């Protein structure tokens, strides 16, 4: 994307059966202080009154795309949204979250002032049943590919990215159910520089009644993250070394054990062992992990149930 004084920004909103929340998301997109926007709503086969909610806005800036059947994978409506967008710049908004009014304007200004950056992200506020709080975000600026290979947590709705960078990165991996956004950010970080705004510019909804089923599926999250590590292990080895890769697998093993996913924990431990440099430290960490898991199982299950897990 060349220098454009007032670039069109396409805000892509994938949605599925969340009509009661979608209205707020669309309203927040249309209320941006930056006015040269397009809102692309991709309906992933909703069976509720989503069409009526979208059509109620009667705003020419909204483009509505309805899929006949639910894809079950967030990457698919995201890709469809990108391919049907007209903007030079793209941002993504989940149907249960919403933007603060100045998000687009402030992020576009960053891209204008820093032509080497193809992506800018920001801090965010988390809205829970107990109120709203600021979430900590890693502050990554410049060429951050090595840091992104450590998979730092960046909330995806905080990003704003040049469309040509999205296309160059190969869009989103449609085989993934949860980690398509994480993989996408790693690929983008290899292509372009990042910039960051510490000010929170969006609200992430984490109220119990509104949490998406996929976001709470810890077993699936761990499986996909393990696959992500395996997919990028060659680049992690080259850029960060064996110790970092071993650490990533070991940390995943800890998480798996504490959540009770024994098979995933064992697989992750074996992979950590394959890449470790310090066998003694690895053995100590493994023993601590096993002791913690024993304690976890005793607290969760009665003694007679614990014997069932040992057999």
Written overview of the protein:
- With 311 residues, the protein is of the alpha/beta class.
- It has 2 domains: 9-211, Spore Coat Polysaccharide Biosynthesis Protein SpsA, Chain A; 217-310, no CATH class.
- 46% of the residues lie in helices and 19% in strands.
- It is built from 12 helices and 9 strands.
- It has helices at 19-30, 50-55, 75-83, 103-113, 145-148, 163-168, 180-191, 218-239, 242-258, 262-275, 279-300, 303-310, and strands spanning 9-15, 37-43, 62-66, 89-92, 98-99, 117-128, 131-135, 160-162, 193-205.
- β6 (117-128) and β7 form a beta hairpin.
- α8 packs antiparallel against α9.
- The chain starts with 8 loop residues before the first strand and ends with a helix.
Summarize the structure.
This protein is of the alpha/beta class.
Write the topology of this structure.
Layout: E1 9-15, H1 19-30, E2 37-43, H2 50-55, E3 62-66, H3 75-83, E4 89-92, E5 98-99, H4 103-113, E6 117-128, E7 131-135, H5 145-148, E8 160-162, H6 163-168, H7 180-191, E9 193-205, H8 218-239, H9 242-258, H10 262-275, H11 279-300, H12 303-310
Chain-averaged pLDDT: 87
Can you count the beta strands? 9
N- and C-termini, Cα separation: 61 Å
Instruction: Tell me the number of helical segments per DSSP (H or I, 4 or more residues long).
Output: 12
Secondary structural class: alpha/beta
What is the level 1 CATH name of the largest domain? Answer: Alpha Beta
Largest sheet: 9 strands, mixed
Which runs of at least 5 residues are low in confidence (pLDDT < 50)? 302-311
Tell me the Rg in angstroms.
Answer: 21 Å
> What's the helix-strand series?
EHEHEHEEHEEHEHHEHHHHH
Q: Within the CATH hierarchy, at the fold level, what is the topology of the largest domain? A: Spore Coat Polysaccharide Biosynthesis Protein SpsA, Chain A
